Amino acid sequence: MLYQITGKHIDIGDALQTHVKTEMGEMLEKYAGRPTDANVVFSKSGHEFVCEATVHLSTGLTAQAKANATEIYAAFDGCAEKMDKQLRRYKRRLKDHHRDRSEPVELMGASSYILAPDKDDVESEPDTLQPIIIAEMETRIPSLSVGEAVMQMEIAGAPVLVFRKEGKNGLNVVYRREDGNIGWIDPN
Asked: What is the DSSP string of the chain?
């Protein structure tokens, strides 16, 4: 498994890197089976340390967690505990999908854009209807079953997930509704 442990404007020592690799390795061995890589980023926000972890699993799912504390080790431990809880909740589903899937999830490339907010007064007419693009990034759209898409959305803590339904070419969307239920858009 590939680990990328970095710090934003702080130095990460060898002892912390060893601690992260050991703890993440033990946790992921229990639940995930074949994780491909883990990205752990430490930063400082005011007087607290922040730890953000992202783990990519061989099934194509991504687990994310974030925690903060006054001590850097406590921040990582809180983050690892959150990720452990997520993976424990979905352990049976992760293992079931892992058995059914002989190959990793197929990913389709796409462009992702960040648009500038409209700063004009709401009552005045805008000069143009074209939004201002302030960033452009590459993203990947996975080919998943609906169950896997819902699980991926919940593990990542995302409000919405765009995916390709297995066996079809069109894009599908699952999202969390205001009433707490999950919505699914499946175009014809």
From this structure: -EEEEEESSS---HHHHHHHHHHHHHHHHHHTSSEEEEEEEEEEETTEEEEEEEEEETTS-EEEEEEEESSHHHHHHHHHHHHHHHHHHTHHHHHHHHHH-SSPPPEEEEEEEEEPP--S-TTSPPS-SSPPEEEEEEEEEEEE-HHHHHHHHHHHT-SEEEEEETT--SEEEEEE-TTSPEEEE---
CATH code where residue 35 lies: 3.30.160.100
CA distance 79 to 86: 11
- List b or e across 27-45, with b for residues whose CB sees 16 or more CB atoms inside 10 angstroms: bbeebbeebeebebbbbee
What distance in Å separates the CA atoms of residue 30 and residue 105, rounded to the nearest whole number?
21
Tokens of 13: 């020592």
Looking at the structure, do residues 85 and 134 belong to the same domain, yes or no? no
Residue 126 is predicted with a pLDDT of 61
For residue 78, give the amino acid letter: G
The token pair that represents 113 in the structure block: 């854009």
The arithmetic mean of pLDDT across residues 110-136, rounded, is 70
Query: What is the per-residue pLDDT for 152?
Result: 83
Please give the Cα distance from 87 to 24 (Å, whole number): 12
Same domain for 146 and 65: no
d(Cα 28, Cα 84) in Å, to the nearest integer?
A: 8
